[in-house]
Amino acid sequence: MRKDNESPRILKEFYEIRIKYFREPVRPSIFLVATYHFEKMIFIMQIILSAIEPKLIEAWKEFFATATDVIIAEGDITKVDCDAIVSPANSFGFMDGGLDHALSERLGWDLEKKLQQIIKELPEGELLVGQALLLETGDKNIPFLISAPTMRIPTNFNIDTSVNAYLAMKAILIKAKNDERINSVAIPGLCTGVGRMQPMIAARQMFQAYKEIILGEKMDFSTFGEAQKYHWNINPQGMIWIH
Asked: Tens digits of per-residue pLDDT, 34-53?
């Protein structure tokens, strides 16, 4: 997918005006900008970061300030029209708590059963942190759900010092980017609910994943020390081995 410099900026400004002045949900893919260059059409996948926590919104704005394909929307993510919405659930597909409860109410509780059955049939018998699944929802406004666990089971133990938001974000973006049916994906805060990760740390991790997967800034370490420093920068609160 080749990026166009102006198209995402125009779309982002249009979306933000709609939110600010009309307060109505918008499906970005409907207004997706397509331009031609050498007789080839360019499509831009829109990433919508949505939350109701002001601190998380501000943290996202700080890290994604220059990301023209990213829209930051303060409000209820279940009311955002998009091609895919993210469930930051757990490795066993329980969707009866926190944001996942709201998603189940919005998209139907049968989705939880469907997800759990798919997970049971995986070789691991669980969906590991750093993996993601795509499910059809049957909902015309949000046709797909991406399940990307941020923890193995619902817990806040060691989540705030982990890199789970980074791993989950990478899985989400890879899954969405590689499916031609997805032109817009709505993503909530990762690890910031039950996991209690600080908003600034979560935003940092999500942005690092964005740089790697969307911008193509791949990791390239020549020494263990470089890898260790990179890992520490993703979550400075995490403990690292220094001997």
From this structure: 333 334 445 689 999 999 99
Domain extent for 198: 44-234
Q: Which residues make beta-bridge pairs with 71?
A: 48
Residue 27 lies in a domain: no
Residue with tokens 């329980």: 94
139 vs 108: CA distance, rounded Å: 9
The encoded tokens of residue 115 equal 């997800």
Selection from 63, 67, 66 nearest residue 46 by Cα: 67
The total of other beta-carbon atoms located within 10 Å of residue 86's CB is 29
- pTM value is 0.83
Report the C-alpha gap between 178 and 228 in whole angstroms. Answer: 29
Q: What is the token pair recorded at 241? A: 């081995």
Q: 195 Cβ partners below 8 Å, 6+ apart?
A: 150, 151, 155, 156, 159, 160, 162, 164, 165
Compute the distance between CA of residue 166 and CA of residue 187 in angstroms, rounded to an integer: 13
